[in-house]
Hints:
Layout: H1 3-13, E1 17-18, H2 21-37, H3 43-72, H4 77-102, E2 106-108, E3 118-125, E4 128-132, H5 140-151, E5 155-159, H6 165-178, E6 184-187, H7 191-198, E7 204-208, H8 211-222, E8 228-231, E9 237-240, H9 246-258, E10 270-274, H10 278-292, H11 308-319, E11 326-328, E12 344-347, H12 354-357, E13 364-370, H13 373-381, E14 388-392, H14 396-405, E15 410-413, E16 427-428, E17 434-435, E18 437-438, H15 440-446, E19 448-455, H16 471-480
Amino acid sequence: MTDNDKTTSAAVKSQSIITTVEQLQKQFSRLHALSRSNPINDWAIRERLLDDLEMLLSDNRENLAHAISADFGHRSESETQFAELFPSFTGISHAKKYGKSWMKTRRASISAMYRPAHNEIQPQPLGVVGIMVPWNYPLYLAVGPMIDALTAGNRVMIKMSEAAPKFAETFAKVVDHYFSSDMVCVVLGEVDIAEAFSKLPFDHLLYTGSTEVGRIVMAAAAKNLTPVTLELGGKSPVIVTKDVNLESVVNRVMMGKTLNAGQTCIAPDYVLIQREHHQHFISLAIEWLQKHYPNIENNEDYSYIINAAQFNRVQGYLDELPADSVHNLTGVDANPEIRLMPPVIVSEPALSSQLMQNEIFAPILPLIHYDNLDDAIQFVNERPRPLALYVFGNDDNEIYQVRTQTVSGGVCVNEVILHVAQHDLPFGGVGDSGIGAYHGKAGFERLSHMKPVFVQAKLNGMNLLLPPYGDLFRKAMALFLK
């Protein structure tokens, strides 16, 4: 490489971090042109990009975790390892293991009428994929879509959340170091930059965040006919059947509700439970917290609420409730100065309350009573379809009833949250909780054009079906239309 080449390379590299609308539009135009003139159809290039992403994470795992913690005031680094770094590494490994086979042209079946022709499906890169990242899991929800986009041969632009600025800046710098701006660039900025980002004519736009903002993003994308994947949220219910080990239920539900202090789009939002289990559930939850988060006010494993606005929002949900319905599980009060919010259980909140009207996104767990399983199913089905649904029980018939009579983005049986980490399962919502799914092969296909190809045989009988239509044509139609 000559000195001039090095200078040019450095100049291009500096374009990897975008901070203005003008830079945003200029960089998009550059990537769009490259995607048309130089599509990435070679597996070796895609694999090398995944290697670079893996190296980025391996070399910078501590810096990235520290940056996330700084944005939260305190975020458990163990949680970052478990919920962000681990699924990122396994996602890359999965893509490298299977990506080459996913991108191969595959045969599809064909009607006997058209033989000896055959059908094929040829995966091709879409071009430029836009990724809009939320603040709650800013590493995994940038890297996860990025894995799928790169495996599918796309160029990528990533808009980081302005609510996690320290991580956004750190991530932008490391991406700038490991990737050319011809392949991946990171966009920083406030709401005006996010709005401009959503209006770009991407070949696909993937947004993770609230349903309210998801509607705005989809409306902006629709003006360009940009296809979207929207990973939203909502109120993910837990249904506890009558024949159940309640201690096991509490163990899993409280894990899901305390992970990242409840700031998880698929966290258990509320529990539908029979009345006789209510008080026992609360007692077991208190014991669970004493065991897993002792001295919660000084516990390194427990995370804080991301910012004052989010803290005040959820504190407001509690303030409007009757005091005797709120059960403090730790004996420690919420601390607005450091945004520490210890877990609480709320007994039978009014269905009109903000707590039951909005996604909670905090360590607040409502318990709602039901009399029979049909009532619990009806309760779920009368509300917007959730991103996740969790059912606990030992009766296979009741589990089957819940699975078949409800519709949700995903389901866990006798577990919570872990379906998101399964790379052979598509992850996505339905209705108000999202559009489209990704992860693994589903993500590869979502961010590829699965092009149908009809291949005619050199010797075929199609000329027999041309006009003028005579007896042979009529006999063939009579045979085909039987």
